[in-house]
Amino acid sequence: MMRYVSALGRLWKSYSIPVRSPVTFSFVTGRSGFSSRSQTVLVHNITKHFRNPNFWQTGGCFLLSFSLFDLWHVNEKVPEEDRVKRLVYEARKSQKDGELLKCEKYYHEALSVVIQRHQNKEIDDNELLQARTYLFDCLANLSFSLNEFDKAEKLYKETIKGCVQAGMPTNGNVILEISLKLANIYAIEDRSEEAILGFEFCINTLREKLKEGEKKEEVKKEESKKEDEWEELYKDTEALLGMCLDSYGRYLLRLSDYDKAEKMLSDSFCIAKKCLGDTHRQTLVIMTNLGVANIFKKNYAFAEQLILQAIKIGEDIDAEEISALYCNLGAVYLAQMQMEKAHEACLKGMASAQRNNDSIAVKKAKTCLQKVTDHRNEKVQVSASQAQS
């Protein structure tokens, strides 16, 4: 079970906010600490998050490589004579080392070898289709990492086409996973209509699958056939829904649709707790984002409660998100004009950011502290003016 949760955590993280980049609230000028403009700006900008190469590198084509394409999933060194697998191994190693252009070269070489083997009748049409589809998915993830979004989009669509040709159902988790990647590309490129349609297609389809699954589960339990296999598929589907809700919730924050964003993030948070546990780092990140949604909605009491809970968990597991959490807590207090508490929270955020060499969090902590200083100076000036009059 622990191995399953660990793998699921890696999968979830590959489609969600990087562990070093939780969403933090934006500080701007204004008596309350926030202007109307601040309601639409995030410090760790969601677009920047989507563009982060680590977003896609942490798990790569996880669902593909652990389902239909087990043959091509290579984590260990392979013999020189198995050239395709060897090239895939070298590509994955290069990607892990951050040598993305070298990685792309290996994948293209592997694709050429596969095509040549098919021409030489060493592999059949089905084997060619499986290999090409897997390699297209890997190249698509890589193109995303290189910010080549047009190329990534085309490759993901080719991957879906290959999956369908291989007999996968159009509502299968593999195809829905790739559809989520496409929705994220549309979000990056500000193609909001396509992004919203993509996210909602994934979410609605997965919810329907889970409803159908609950009905089938009753039958499966009665028949006592393949119960473990069915439960694992159900959990995978539920986890994928959690990832879709998380991604869509953060995108809705960017679109300033705070009510809907809160609903999506709240549902994702519930699934994360169920699938990953209360103290998993990805659960912590979603809790942080849910807190931000409530700051935007001016639900300060609930936001404070969430962030304090997240801080406690973060300190227990020594999470790097602590600096951002303290900055968000400072934002809650600033919005309520609780300057002493804001000062204390942002000082803790600064200390944590400096320990973790998090330059973004350092900058935000400084901004928070400056807001407190500005407010104090303003109060002194008002008092002096009143004394003179």
From TrEMBL:
Gene3D superfamilies per UniProt: Tetratricopeptide repeat domain (1.25.40.10)
Alphabetical keyword list: Mitochondrion, Repeat, TPR repeat, Transit peptide
Subcellular location: Mitochondrion
GO terms for biological process, alphabetical: mitochondrial respiratory chain complex III assembly
InterPro entries: TPR-like_helical_dom_sf, TTC19
Similarity section: Belongs to the TTC19 family.
Descriptive protein name: Tetratricopeptide repeat protein 19, mitochondrial
